[in-house]
Amino acid sequence: MNKNELIQQVSEKTGISKKDTEKVVNATLDQVIQALEANDKVQFVGFGTFEVRERASRTGRNPQTGETITIPATRVPGFRAGNKFKDAVKK
């Protein structure tokens, strides 16, 4: 499912126009991104938690030259699935 399919299905399920549904979906995603930029967690009970994780610097190897390089520390988005979501996927 892509974003347009999500908007279509939510629109059909709620009876809200596709244009208004698209605004809601976009606003929701924007708010999740803004919260993560502020280093806050976003938790949807039963679905899961979006959070920012710190990835430590590490040593890597250039695949072309074999030279050892240092990969700098970085922040990456992470998602931890909630129990209801995990149970639904198991079925």
UniProtKB/TrEMBL annotation:
Any matching Pfam family: Bac_DNA_binding
A single MF term (Gene Ontology): DNA binding
Sorted UniProt keywords: DNA condensation, DNA-binding
Alphabetized InterPro entries for the sequence: Hist_DNA-bd, Histone-like_DNA-bd_CS, IHF-like_DNA-bd_dom_sf
SMART domains found in the cross-reference section: BHL
Family: Belongs to the bacterial histone-like protein family.
Name of this chain's protein: HU family DNA-binding protein
